């Protein structure tokens, strides 16, 4: 973490000591990304022994996994619960028509960037199995599942206004951190299905839901959370950070209403109507005026006029204090 002069301990150390510290950090799976002085998302950082222990591992043999319970079949792959190194894990076996040598190589190149162990609101990928035809992504098991499951399933968790704001703040802090990364991590659509809820009700953005560059190209599965421009144009032709802010506005709406966005439509109908017919979420009566205003600001039709996450975190924190 940098001081107000944008210096880190590595900058202040001698060259020899800095190199030793860097090598040690890499061995322990630490991210060397500099956290700017203004970034306060590290406050309340919790040391997670499970993550710390498993962060040393990268590629592993699939025989080391004990997969016991089939959780779901998704568009991206089969999801299993199991154990690895005596830890509860979730393994996603990617669905591929054919696992080529190039797929395996790209998987190996892209996977390390998903091992983000230095932020409490990011759920890192712990390890991978790169054994064609099997490409497997391994994450820590989250007892309550996704935010979507908590809001719309039967977990028994009461999500009152305060808890909804805590979830929103967690997600905003995680996204703020991801937006500081260079180069940016593409292909991660922000939806309530891609936010996991830990045992202490911390919301964590799931890096295991990253869409690999070779996987399901050109297919969209969560249009209800996507911005109009993301549905109309290619990713390289839009402001991805602004598109993420639109997705966050949909999450705020979801947290306020406890409803599934555009639940009455199929995904294809939803995407077409948002992109071509101007379909938008309506704010129901009873929603707080402050939250209604924030949703509107974050979903401004002009991407360049949407705020950044470091601008809305203080607003959410003020709302939580009221």
From TrEMBL:
MF (Gene Ontology): ATP binding; protein serine/threonine kinase activity
GO biological process, alphabetically ordered: cell-matrix adhesion; integrin-mediated signaling pathway; substrate adhesion-dependent cell spreading
Gene3D superfamilies for the chain: Phosphorylase Kinase, domain 1 (3.30.200.20), Transferase(Phosphotransferase) domain 1 (1.10.510.10)
Annotated Gene Ontology cellular component terms: focal adhesion; stress fiber
Pfam families per the UniProt record, alphabetical: PK_Tyr_Ser-Thr
PROSITE patterns: PROTEIN_KINASE_DOM (PS50011)
Superkingdom classification of source: Eukaryota
Residue intervals of the Protein kinase domain: 65-319
Protein's recorded name: Protein kinase domain-containing protein
Species this protein is from: Magallana gigas (Pacific oyster)
């Amino acid at each position: 973490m940098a001081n107000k002069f944008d210096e880190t301990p590595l900058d202040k150390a001698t060259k020899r000591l800095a190199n030793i510290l860097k090598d040690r950090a890499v061995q322990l799976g630490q991210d060397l990304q500099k956290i700017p002085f203004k970034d306060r998302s590290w406050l309340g950082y919790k040391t997670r022994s499970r993550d710390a222990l498993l962060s040393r591992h990268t590629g592993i043999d699939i025989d080391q996994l004990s997969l016991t319970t089939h959780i779901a079949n998704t568009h991206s792959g089969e999801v299993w619960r199991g154990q690895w190194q005596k830890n509860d894990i979730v393994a996603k076996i990617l669905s591929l028509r054919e696992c080529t040598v190039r797929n395996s190589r790209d998987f190996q190149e892209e996977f390390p960037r998903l091992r983000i162990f230095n932020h409490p609101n990011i759920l890192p990928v712990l390890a991978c199995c790169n054994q064609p035809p099997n490409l497997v992504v391994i994450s820590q098991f989250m007892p309550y599942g996704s935010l979507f499951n908590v809001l719309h399933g039967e977990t028994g968790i009461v999500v009152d206004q305060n808890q909804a704001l805590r979830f929103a703040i967690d997600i905003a802090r995680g996204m703020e951190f991801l937006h500081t990364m260079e180069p940016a991590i593409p292909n991660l659509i922000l939806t309530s299905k891609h936010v996991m809820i830990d045992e202490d009700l911390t919301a964590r953005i799931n890096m295991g839901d990253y869409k690999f560059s070779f996987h399901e190209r050109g297919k969209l599965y969560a249009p209800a959370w996507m911005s109009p421009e993301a549905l109309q144009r290619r990713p390289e032709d839009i402001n991805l950070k602004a598109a993420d802010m639109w997705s966050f506005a949909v999450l705020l709406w979801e947290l306020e209403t406890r409803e599934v966005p555009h639940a009455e439509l199929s995904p294809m109908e939803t995407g077409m109507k948002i992109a071509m017919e101007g379909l938008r979420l309506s704010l129901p009566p009873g929603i707080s005026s402050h939250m209604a205003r924030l949703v509107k600001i974050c979903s401004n039709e002009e991407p360049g006029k949407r705020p950044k996450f470091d601008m809305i975190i203080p607003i959410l924190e003020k709302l939580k204090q009221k």
